[in-house]
Amino acid sequence: MDPVTVVKGKVSVLDRADIDTDQIIPKQFLKRIERTGYGEFLFYDWVRSGEVSLEPNPILVAGRNFGCGSSREHAVWAIQQFGFGAVVAPSFSDIFFGNCTKNGLLPIRLAEADVRALAAAGEATIDLAQQTISFAGRTLPFEIDAEIKHRLLNGLDEIALTLEHVHDIDAFERDRLPAGPVTTAL
Amino acid sequence: MPKTMFDKIWEAHEVRDGLLYIDLHLVHEVTSAQAFEGLRLARRSVRRPDKTLATADHNVPTDGTSVTRMIEDVLSRQQVQTLERNCAEFGIPVYSMGSDRQGIVHVIGPELGLTQPGTTIVCGDSHTATHGALGALAFGIGTSEVEHVLATQTLVQRKPKSMRIWYAGELGFGVTAKDVILATIGTMGTSGCVGYAVEYAGPVIERLSIENRLTVCNMTIEAGGRAGMVAPDDTTFAYLEGRPAVPSGPAWEQALDRWRTLPTDDGATFDRTVDIDGSGIAPMVTWGTTPGQVVEVTGRVPSPDEFAEAADRETAERALAYMGLDPGTPITDVPLDRVFIGSCTNSRIEDLRLAAAVAEGRRVADGIRAMVVPGSAQVKIQAEEEGLDRVFEAAGFEWRSAGCSMCLGMNPDILAPRERCASTSNRNFEGRQGAGGRTHLVSPEMAAAAAIEGHFVDIRSWRA
Prior knowledge:
Structural class of chain B: alpha/beta
Number of helices of chain B: 15
Strand content of chain B: 15-25%
Shape of chain A: globular
Radius of gyration of chain B: 21 Å
Radius of gyration of chain A: 19 Å
Largest sheet of chain A: 7 strands, mixed
Distance between the termini of chain A: 38 Å
Helix content of chain B: 25-40%
Structural class of chain A: alpha/beta
Oligomer: heterodimer
Largest sheet of chain B: 5 strands, parallel
Shape of chain B: globular
Largest interface: A-B, 60 and 88 residues
Order of helices and strands of chain A: EHHEHEHEHEEEHHH
Distance between the termini of chain B: 56 Å
């Protein structure tokens, strides 16, 4: 994952609530076994029917509960590969939010009124280190988990970070491992 | 200090702050290929193949094709073959096509007894909360997290908040677990449970069978919940005893002792509690394009004006246009083209028995194509031993083989544009069952009765 510091530029607006990951990347494009090649299929059905037309700007602005439904990480890959570096919405689904942070796509939560003001402003600068988003002469703070922020700013591999604590995992398995099913014994 | 069941399971699995140990990792073909590739590129191995199990479900044709290389769709075939190759390379047991243990990942976990009380379970699939029905803490995760769990057997996870939804009273005749969860999503909204692990409790839940509890927990994600769970009790233990992965002899007794300590202590506090009157729940039918857009079967398609919030009005307008419905139309007047009985929500043996009881001695209405898709090879075998396949076929239903089928249209089972379907699955999103397809979510009995009549009926008063 490349480090993420500043996302700056125009916004593309999709003023809808409850945008689910089936809309972001429909199921027929989930059969690929690579992490690439999804950008051109972003919002495929909506784009094909002509009801949505999106510019590949740096920032996507959308309605509440963005990314609900299926856990498919392909949704994040598609948004990123289309050209977006950040998504701003009043709220996100938990799994989608987590998936964003594993790939360096910035998910930013703002109050609904601020999201609308951002959509009207048309462009913004998001500074992750400062945890601010600036548009139309205003600068607003946003919240992000400190560990996620550290990982994004430095482009760190989460697995490598966890493996720095592999001795804790070893100790857990040695001393505290709860009894559980054994799949290889079936 | 009194603790919730969620607290107890969380604390028993916390390796260090924010790092959770995973007891069971279920894997399927759609969300795993890139994770295995990541391991390969970083020269990492799978830490605990003995806590990992794979099956093929999303891409599997349900027409009786029993060998992977016979899958006609090139990309589907490649995805299942990739899963088989990855599992062989990394030493992970896999029940792929042709295995008598193959099936929908959330059906085979409980069926094999792998889903056990007090365990942590993850899968690269949002419906993983299903497994919470047996008192497990089960999360859906993305592909990067699949790779993380494969490599470390842990998951980086901030502790969600806790919620208890308490169902008082008792369910009326013809009201099922599916109606309980659809009514709950209608009440909570599609994001009402975001950030929470939900414990379903109360007399209504205690009286549900395990398979019915699986249906309730399955759709937790449709209200945005991270996990859904039910306290283990004698119903749970009776379900588990004797299943392949469940211990026997003295180990079974020890397991029971452990499991009995899991339920939430008296006086434990939740971050949020919600009360729902179970006696007031009716058979439910979704009318829109989110599972929260749902009404009682005796209701009508709502008008966007009925919604207070602007966002809800806009969503309703779009949903009505997509669904081709006029406000004010009685739900029972909505004509259907297709009926689908299956999916990780409603494809277990009890679901099929209830649907068969409705179908027995009757005929699917002219012009309706109705399919029954068992959730696993084992469910199929059992249903055929009980003669349910013959009941369905005599009534004009298609009897298929195990897989995700028409729940998500990654296999040949899909809707044509504008086809309208009564479905026992979990999502009525635009295009979910096929581009332009129109999905109404209902219980298995409601779906079967709709197949007979060609439109929705109130199962409580229906006699064909």
